Amino acid sequence: MKTFRSSINYFLVPFLVMIVFGTVASFFVNTNDEKMPLAVTIFLVLISGFILWMLLDTKYQIKDTFLHYSCGPIRGKIDILQIHKIENVKTWYVSSILKPALGSYGLTLTYNKFDDIYISPKHKSEFIGELLKINPNIQIIA
After folding, report:
1. pTM of the model
2. Higher pLDDT, residue 31 or 106
């Protein structure tokens, strides 16, 4: 099994850190001796936990002939033998609906007949090389 971590858009990280820091700081701030409502506190904790889960768990694993992806609660697998095209994405806009990725410039994998997924492995060329070892018929679009 080969594991690839996701690249990270470092413009996004300060925003995410502010959300998590704001949540932690909100526990220590009292306004007019009133505590924050419990529902708001729970919501902030859940959002912070979700963001941390995504930051720490976004990865892609090649196991046998399957590509397993995970990004927080988003998980799945793709049969590498069904992948027929990999496109290098060089813009911020991505038309794929499924995006288990943290990076801005990644890869769009097209598989089955009409399915696609956007991923952002940190080491793209090594990742593509591993996929090509399993399925040499994949078309690479630079």
Report:
1. 0.79
2. 106
